[in-house]
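Thread: Newbie trying to understand structure tokens

Hi all, I'm a second-year student working on a class project, and my supervisor (Dr. K.) asked me to get a predicted structure for one chain before our next meeting. I've only ever worked with sequences, so writing a 3D structure as a token string is new to me. If someone could post the tokens and maybe explain what I'm looking at, I'd be very grateful. Here's the chain:
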Amino acid sequence: MTGSANGADRMEQGDSGRASAPTIEGLVARLEAMAAQLEEQRAEIGRLQAERPAPAAVAAPPGAKRTPGAGRTTDRRGLLRGLLAAGAATVALGASGARTAHAAARGTLVGGSTVNYGLVATFGVGDDPLPFLPPLGSTSHGVIGTESNIARSPAFSSGVLGCSDDFVGVQGLSNSNYGVYGQTAGGPGLGVGLSAVLGSSRDATGVGGASTNNSGVFGVSHGFGPGLSNLAGTGGTSDNNIGVLGTSTSNLGVLGESTKSIGVLGAASAANNGSPG
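---
Reply by user tm_fold:
Sure, no problem. This is what the structure looks like when written as tokens:
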């Protein structure tokens, strides 16, 4: 017992030339000082935000609910508990050898998120993007890039939304992979090789096109052939390649059906064509 007491005295007083180990009381005092400083900073931030006019908020959709915990406040005791928990988590991470993740971003923050968007951005130094945002209705989006408030309003909620009057809404570029990749319903479908845009699905249509007054899907190979005089669900044209091709190992290569007209029509327009339709 005497040896233990003497050892404790040495730890409290410290050996010559070496700092003594911190006590629990000392750590609590440091945490309380840090908590007081954080509260002062929070008050200063609140004062600065109150002095600056807040951007106009987009109206919340009917029936929208606050995120749980959004209005929660923290007293000094709770803040101390949080700091202690954060310290313990840091020690645990260091012991497990976890590596710190880093991320970088550049921009000007002028306001907070709403029920309609998590992040909305436009180009320009310090420009508030809200005046350039079209009506969102009841849709919600994770990230919005916008440049015009007369862009079309979205019909669906989305993870990423691009809004523009005369720019490209959303573009995907790649040197050696898909420019844009879309997948739905049960996982990816069959691989089709490299393409600028790929739609893949096991249980649904990979790529669909629909139009009321024009072709639903239109493809061009090498150059334009004779113009498509009749609008089509799928249109294909080429100056020296096949305009539309269908192949099958054990079924019809091309199937056409019509209730009141020709199901499939082929024609050769040149008089010297050796392969007439």
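A couple of things are worth pointing out once you decode it. The chain has a mean pLDDT of 75. The chain is about 20% helix and 15% strand. Feel free to ask follow-ups in this thread.
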